[in-house]
Design brief:
7-stranded mixed beta sheet, single chain, Aspartate Aminotransferase, domain 2, alpha/beta, 2 domains
Amino acid sequence: MTKTYRPRTALVHGGARRSQFGETSEALFLTSGYTYESMEAAEKRFTGEEPGFVYSRFANPTVRMFEERMALLEGAEDARATASGMAAVTAAILCSLKAGDHILSSQAVFGSCRFIVETLAPRFGISSTLVDGRDLDQWKKAIRPNTRIVFLESPSNPTLEVIDIRAVAEIAHAAGALLIVDNVFATPVLQRPLELGADIVVYSATKHIDGQGRCLGGVVLSSKQWIADHLANFLRQTGPAISPFNAWVMLKSLETLDLRVREHARNGEAVARFLEDHPKVTRVLHPALKSHPQHELAMSQMEMGGNVMAFDVKGGKEGAFRFANALDIIKISNNLGDAKSLITHPATTTHQRLTPEQRAASGISEGMLRLSIGLEDPQDLMEDLDAALAGI
């Protein structure tokens, strides 16, 4: 398939490999290994002299279809799928680092991502620094001669901080470092970090890419050269392989990703505006709102504001719990990007391992809730929120 097809067409047809049966729906190759016509053929397959699949920990036809379709959507040269989003983040960060190197990251990131940067990497002699990602001067001052990886989320989880990707990419490249962007909140439909100067993009495919809360998965996208030189062998030797079944589910979900994400975003903006005007809500963070501190930057990088927002209710933790427990349609869950609207309390779930001081520095209050808007009728969601807010 040529790369000249527009995104919606690529999402339906990209990367397809049909068997001798000519199936319409992409085939599921649920196999761990492959056979060879001879020992000589096996030898050539392992040395790379002869193309083909060797073992599904390394590559699989269904997984490869998913990777190629993701690469077409992202505008990347290549991609590799992993067993989860955190497997993708971990592999992308660590695969090209060694003892003595330095990681520079924004502090407003998902709790597990912060663990990789701040706790895990230093155990192997890789130092790290966290900065306020919104402040370009902090990036400039913190970067070092041995900085090899710069990492950020934009918008961030859960406070929806927006970072100037192009400016941070320029700072990273001037120091000889690579920029990794976790683009899970925006998805490749609403934001294209590679076009803004990023070198590597990572996703938890568990979120919008699956979109229905069924399977775990992750994706790393970059240049063919970087994947060949660093990522491919790291994944091959460490083994965070995605199940072919999960890859097949993700592959089928990609067919509707553009339609779903845009409807998610329209619903999200409507709910965010409703909450912003509600007397029981003290603050709403959503990139499409003009009240968002980085609204203009967000709209210059993103097509729409997305479906995830954070907001503070009166009464701190007690008020947040009372409110969330009173919801009917919206369910309590730490997942996001689902067809169902989901809400969580970051201070006691996704970011509970941070100290109170660290949470405060990241803008996570006791009364903050993170809300992922689904595909329900937004009017029903607003009525559900209004009824629950009446109780605090």
